[in-house]
Amino acid sequence: MGKSRKDKNKIKVIRYITVFIIIFILFFLRTSYKYYKKGASDVVEAGNLSESILLMSEKSAVNLALQHEKQLIQAEKAKLAELEKRQQKELDQVENRRNVFLTFDDGPSEKVTPQILDILKKYDVKATFFVIGSSAEKYPEIIKRIHQEGHAIGNHTYSHRYNYIYRRTSNFLKELENTEKVLKGILGEDYETKLVRFPGGSFGEKKAPFRKAVLEKGYTYYDWNSLNGDAEGHYIPKDRLIQRFKSTYNGQKELIILMHDMDSKYTTSESLPYIIEYLQQNDYEFQVLR
């Protein structure tokens, strides 16, 4: 009886030990799993931390400032490149610009000068009129219209008489002064023009003293490098005037075209629209002499 009780107690102890061992093993396995999971998590978190540090570094105040400065530099470079491109375009336009100066001598006249003014107004084109003083005295209202419509007025002597004005330089200068007085009488004492065209042009050695005298008096004289040929005969058909102009045009970058506006040159006004349109088609800009 006593032995049987001892055996039972022994069995209970073995059971307790076994249960304890099982519990210990389970506890060990669970602890190992948690430790493993925590280590893996730490690794992931460490990776996220590195990325976060990198992201914070990229977005730091210093880095943002550097990026902003870089953007400003790039914008400034683009702006300078655009400015250089625009300036180059403007330079090209200046280099390729073609200027034309329509000039009319020997007026004003009662009929042809107003016709020419009407045509210029229609095309919104300005011209330069080299007027004779004695003719200006006859038609002061036409002189006023020339001036009011924005055209330039030049001095073409008072009488246009070659045998007198080219006899001596003093005669020539006196004629210019007389025409100046006429223009001031019409347009006011404040009006002044220093533009001169020599009757027949300033060409040749014989006129060298006259050119010198004119310059010394502060005038600027202009000749021409193109013409319509209306001084080469009487009542020349307009088609011949147009062809004559085209034969002297030669695609020059700066044209000073000689024409006349006396009443005997009525075909000049007839040919003028065709000449203007031809010049416009060839990209000329109309200017006045100064």
UniProtKB/TrEMBL annotation:
GO biological process, one term: carbohydrate metabolic process
Domain NodB homology: start-end pairs: 98-287
Domain of life: Bacteria
The keyword Transmembrane helix belongs to this UniProt entry's keyword annotation: yes
Listed transmembrane segments: 12-29
GO molecular function terms listed in the Swiss-Prot or TrEMBL record: hydrolase activity, acting on carbon-nitrogen (but not peptide) bonds
Keywords tagged on the record: Coiled coil, Membrane, Transmembrane, Transmembrane helix
Pfam families cross-referenced by the UniProt entry: Polysacc_deac_1
UniProt xrefs under PANTHER family: GLYCOSYL TRANSFERASE-RELATED (PTHR10587), POLYSACCHARIDE DEACETYLASE YHEN-RELATED (PTHR10587:SF125)
Record protein name field: Polysaccharide deacetylase family protein
